[in-house]
Amino acid sequence: MISFPELILNIAVFLSFRPKYRTGRTLGSGTYAIVKEAIHIKTGKYFACKVINKKLMEGREHMVRNEIAVLKRISSGNRNVVTLHDYFETAHNLYLCFDLCTGGELFDRICAKGNYYEADAAALVRIIFSAVSYIHSAGIVHRDLKPENLLFRTSAEDADIMIADFGLSRVMEGGIGGEKLNMLTEVCGTPGYMAPEIFKKTGHGKPVDVWAMGVITYFLLAGYTPFDRESQQAEMEAIIAGDYKFEPHEYWANVSDTAKEFVRWCLTINPNERPTAEDCLGHKWLASAEPHFVPDPESPTGGPTDLLPHVKKAFNAKGLWRKAAFSIRALNRMTILAGTGYAFSNTHAEAQKLRDNVATYKEESEKEKMEDASVTHQHQSESSPSSPASPTYKAEGM
């Protein structure tokens, strides 16, 4: 017969492994994970929960361990970086609980505005670069900075913008001051935002994030990316050569020379000569007390020109980052998961087989309800829960 102390211990163990969350709606689907709304049972607070089927992790647990290691190092240290609040396992899935960002993606917010000036773009770039500087100071390189990974915390006008999706990020190791990423030569990221050294496989580190920020800045000022081409091969060649222009003239005539100079600086081909995130924050386009702009010839006071009409026109015409085709990022993740060593083809039999399996495993993940599952491992969170979410959702995806 079980003793009273043993009974108490068993009850305590049972309670400690009871689910802390209740399953909400499915918010999105990424390359090999789904993202669901999770409601903390005790507090009623909302989170975005990345759900990964453990069948996809067999033999490749290092991928998820790396993301957790990155997020534990930087979570709660900067208000503009998404926080990992909790992570736990059930028999079938791994769950990672993040801030639930409800304010939408960066460019959607810009397009919804009544007007948009160069000073607005500079303010956004300044905030994001400050967060990038924080990430770099923690020894992390993001490697997938792009507009889709910049989310607003809430729908409020003054809501924080957040850097999300650290699935491709790495903790820096080796080299002087940990600046080299052990000369990693994997081709990863989203093609239009990738630095030349990634394509050239010469080794890369923190400078790739500065390059991506240069592309994002160009995009924020014009509504399209500098290296957009008809094919990925042509796009890659343009990036390696640094082949871009501030054209068409009608779009860039309303942008100051200071802003163009800033973009050129970020898009320095040689990573050893490229500025750091801290250097960029000291550039006059971001650091000057007075905003830089081209005066509107129709303004009686000489105020700044509204960039929104041209930006929206270009964005709607191109639809650049809403393309349905597989990105290099997705293909490489699929390849790593498959363990095939094959890359850059979505017609290969192994790649097709993996895609079919991923779809099946993601369907299995979605069926599990957190409140009904048995938690096999509960990892204590080191940060406080976020505030309750509003009804409109946009979650960080994998």
Automatic annotation (TrEMBL):
Domain of life: Eukaryota
UniProt keyword Transferase present: yes
Keyword entries, A-Z: ATP-binding, Kinase, Nucleotide-binding, Serine/threonine-protein kinase, Transferase
Binding site for ATP: K50
Bias (Basic and acidic residues) ranges: 357-374
Stretches assigned to the Protein kinase domain: 21-286
Coiled coil start-end: none
Biased composition (Low complexity): 381-391
Molecular function per GO: ATP binding; protein serine/threonine kinase activity
Annotated segments matching region Disordered: 357-398
UniProt cross-references to SUPFAM superfamilies, sorted A to Z: Protein kinase-like (PK-like)
Stated family: Belongs to the protein kinase superfamily.
Protein name per its UniProtKB record: Protein kinase domain-containing protein
Species of the source: Collybiopsis confluens
